[in-house]
Amino acid sequence: MIAEGLSRLLPGIPVVSEEAACHPAAIAPDASFALVDPLDGTREFLVGSDEYAINIALVVAGRLAAGFIAAPALGLIYRGVVGRGAEYLRLTAGAEPGQAAEAVPIHTRRRPVEGLVATVSRSHLEPATEAFVERLPISRLLPCGSALKFCRIADGTADIYPRLSPTREWDVAAGHAIVLAAGGALVAPDGTPMSYGQCQRDFRVPGFVAWGDPTAISAAG
């Protein structure tokens, strides 16, 4: 359904997805394409949790342009266009975006003086991430499943979301775009910018750290 919809809205655009039969053999540095994860948070879905999500991101001319994260069980869609802002929509099942019960602009928050709220994986928290979090002035941990952790950064509920273990571009890109659109930042574990379309490494990502307040990156070292 997602692939069919994208083919109507963006004819001819390549779609990169975990569930695709094959990935594009090559993506040019200035290419436009979509990154899709139709079920993010598989463990949450299987145990009946409402924290699973659907991720869609759009890369235009080699740059991350927009991201969409839907949480069907929560009746929420988070969306953001880089440089234009982010919001969440509250929808009933089957409703169109124009029929949203709520459409609320969201923005990241400044780093709180009393300590950071860190959102971490409910099912994939590994030792490297735990060690990273322990080095920071954390006031509270906020476990969460799927890409909804990015949404907690974007709406100002949390301040940092680290994941220092490998993942794939379709797991990250939609949340990255929403965080950027809401005023935050996301970097690789070594502090360098993230890039997408890396088919030569099978779209693997070594890890990342998402920040609500970009000024906190240098403060964290």
Keywords:
221 residues; alpha+beta; Fructose-1,6-Bisphosphatase, Chain A, domain 1; D-Maltodextrin-Binding Protein, domain 2; 2 domains; three-stranded antiparallel beta sheet; 6 helices; 14 strands
Walk me through this protein's architecture.
The chain has 2 domains: 2-106, Fructose-1,6-Bisphosphatase, subunit A, domain 1 (Fructose-1,6-Bisphosphatase, Chain A, domain 1); 116-220, D-Maltodextrin-Binding Protein, domain 2 (3-Layer(aba) Sandwich). The chain has 6 helices and 14 strands. It has helices spanning 2-9, 42-46, 127-134, 148-154, 169-181, 216-220; strands at residues 15-17, 33-40, 53-60, 63-71, 76-81, 85-90, 102-106, 116-121, 138-144, 160-163, 167-168, 185-187, 204-205, 208-211. The strands form 4 sheets. The protein has a 7-stranded mixed sheet with strand order 1-2-3-4-5-6-7, sandwiched between helices. It is globular, with a radius of gyration of 17 Å. The mean pLDDT is 92.
Specify the biggest β-sheet.
7 strands, mixed
Helix content: 10-25%
How many domains would you count in the coordinates?
A: 2
CATH superfamily of the largest domain: Fructose-1,6-Bisphosphatase, subunit A, domain 1
Which architecture of the largest domain per CATH? 2-Layer Sandwich
Beta-strand segment tally: 14
- The CATH topology of the largest domain is given as Fructose-1,6-Bisphosphatase, Chain A, domain 1
Mean pLDDT: 92
Report the order of strands and helices: HEEHEEEEEEHEHEEHEEEH
Uncertain residue segments:
none
Name of the CATH first level of the largest domain? Alpha Beta
Q: By helix and strand content, what is the structural category?
A: alpha+beta
